[in-house]
Amino acid sequence: MTISQESTTEAVRALVDKHLNLTAHGFEFGVDDDLWNLGMTSLSCMGLMLTIEDTFQVELPEEALKEDTFRSVGSITAAVRSASEVRA
Amino acid sequence: MRTESASHKVRPDQADIVIVGNGALGLFLADELVERRAGSVVVVGPGNRDAGASAAAGAMLGCFGETTTESLRTDASRTRFELGVRAHDRWPEVTARLEEYSTTGSPLLVTPESHVVLNSIGATLDTVNYEAMIKALDEYGKPWAEIDPNEIPGYRPRLDTRALKAVHLPNEGAVDARGVLAALENRLAQTDTVLVDQTVAKLVRNNGQIIGVELDDGHFIEAGTVVVATGARSEALVKTALDDFDTVPMFPGLGFAMLARRTGGEKFRSVVRTPNRGFACGLHVVPGPGDLEYYGATNRLVDTVSSVTWMADVRFLAQYSMQQLDERVASHEVVKWLAGNRPVTLDGFPLIGWLPLSGLYLLTGTYRDGFHCAPLLAEHVANELQGKPGTIDPMFQPTRKPIETRTIEWSIDEYVEHNLAGWFETGAQAAPQMTTNQIADYYRNMAIKFYETMNIDYALGPDILWYAQGSLLGARRVARYFQRLARAEAQPVGA
């Protein structure tokens, strides 16, 4: 299954929005915006990680389970695509 | 008969039983098997025991000093507790047997007694665990006496952290862990047991049977029976032969301790310790061997086994030993930094028994009293290896599901209480208008959100909860384990 970069980014963005409740609170955020500055906590990051793995059916490598990976929609998308390639 | 040096150099190709791991559990088991003439035994483990729990242990022979409100609250916890009580009775014979093989120049039993102090810095968790200890001592008819804290030899804390209460436990002492391990090795070296100073890279199987182990340099040792007793590394090693087997997950509980030489003031002559505390075993000093003193306390669940420690833990141990045990500790000379990884299971209970691969046995998960329980467990495991009935409850089998001892609500309460204990002991500061209840609410909300996010209905102990909410890897391991468990249960029988 090949998923385009754009659709992965959009899907990640939607999951981030749902977990951090950003749009509902009037926040606009771009692909590179720092989610930690937008109020992500270690707990919301944990939930996001589990949802991301479930949605894209990937297992992120252990070294990717760190703050930086979840810093932005862009960095999460990159990690998901990298893990998907390994799986493929 | 072999000499010690020859024993370490021999690289056998075959043995009846290979024990992987040269900590207390592995060596006591080897000793028991040799006594029984149970066949040829090879023990594989690195001589430096880097990051191992046994070599870093304070080796307090304490079961009542370790009591918490949880110890006797459920049948499962009581069974676990009574392992310690039974193990305790073995030690006089053990130290007597090993003394002649010791080369430390000091008695292996460094002290026969303990004092447990109740000071005000550890929050209410200290108080309830102190009371639980006295209740347990009475229930089991063990001797204890209240004592004026000022009469405890060596105990000279800062006045603001002084104890107002203390008990003397005349039958709970400590051994020199490193001396005992060396004595066991010396004793084994005088038998046909071979101690191989290497690590096992993987277990080797053939269909449904273990057939041996492969060392880190590729050397193969054939054996029909293999016991894995490599502490916090055990789960990873078992996976090399049983990739799809889900035992109760295990995490390294990294502990830090210091061996220091006293330069002045009155020596400690007994173990002096607080009750068990927030996430850990309480601050303690163990006298000996010789003019050394062992200071320990820390426990931090971590992602991977290592022998490094956090500066925060160094600061914690040094500062609180000075404040809460003896001001003179400030001028002690640290002669050794010790770091070891306790094998901590998700449910807090040991993993002892046959694995679903013929000939493969697991002996680990003993958390903070593996050393203390080792002689008792050695007898049990030796029985099982010889096809005889075991001597302990079969509830600790590694094929079990996690043992349940609490509700989610209880787990959240415990988490709050442990965090408050840590908060006050470490001198954390809140705004003056903030109350203890508000701090408790913060931790309570954290724990509630954690359970909502993880979507699990198994109630975790406070240490596992603390770790999993702060580690993405830890949280994922816990969450995925319960998902796999739920899927397996949903499968029809025979599927």
List keywords for this structure.
heterodimer, A: mainly alpha, Non-ribosomal Peptide Synthetase Peptidyl Carrier Protein, Chain A, 52% helix, 0% strand, B: 495 residues, alpha+beta, FAD/NAD(P)-binding domain, 3 domains, nine-stranded mixed beta sheet, eight-stranded mixed beta sheet, 13 helices, disordered N terminus
Total helical elements of chain A:
3
Low-confidence stretches of chain A: none
Biggest interface, chains and residues, is:
A-B, 12 and 14 residues
Q: Overall pLDDT of chain B, averaged?
A: 94
Report helical residue fraction of chain A.
40-55%
Q: Supply the number of structural domains of chain A.
A: 1
Number of separate strands of chain B: 19
Gap between N and C termini of chain A: 8 Å
Q: Rough shape of chain B? A: globular
For this structure, the CATH topology of the largest domain in chain B is FAD/NAD(P)-binding domain
First CA to last CA of chain B: what distance?
53 Å
Q: Regions of chain B with pLDDT < 50 over 5+ consecutive residues?
A: 1-8
Integer count of domains of chain B: 3
Protein described:
The complex is a heterodimer of chains A (88) and B (495). By secondary structure, chain A is mainly α. Chain A has one domain: Non-ribosomal Peptide Synthetase Peptidyl Carrier Protein, Chain A (Orthogonal Bundle), CATH 1.10.1200.10. Chain A is 52% helix and 0% strand. In chain A, helix 1 runs antiparallel to helix 2 and helix 1 crosses helix 3. The model of chain A has no long low-confidence stretch (mean pLDDT 92). Chain B has 495 residues and is of the alpha+beta class. Helix content of chain B is 35%, strand content 21%. Chain B has 13 helices and 19 strands. In chain B, a hairpin with a 4-residue loop joins strand 14 and strand 15. In chain B, helix 10 packs across helix 11 and helix 12 packs across helix 13. The longest helix of chain B has 19 residues. Chain B is globular and about 65 Å long. The termini of chain B are far apart. The interface between A and B is medium-sized, with 12 and 14 residues.
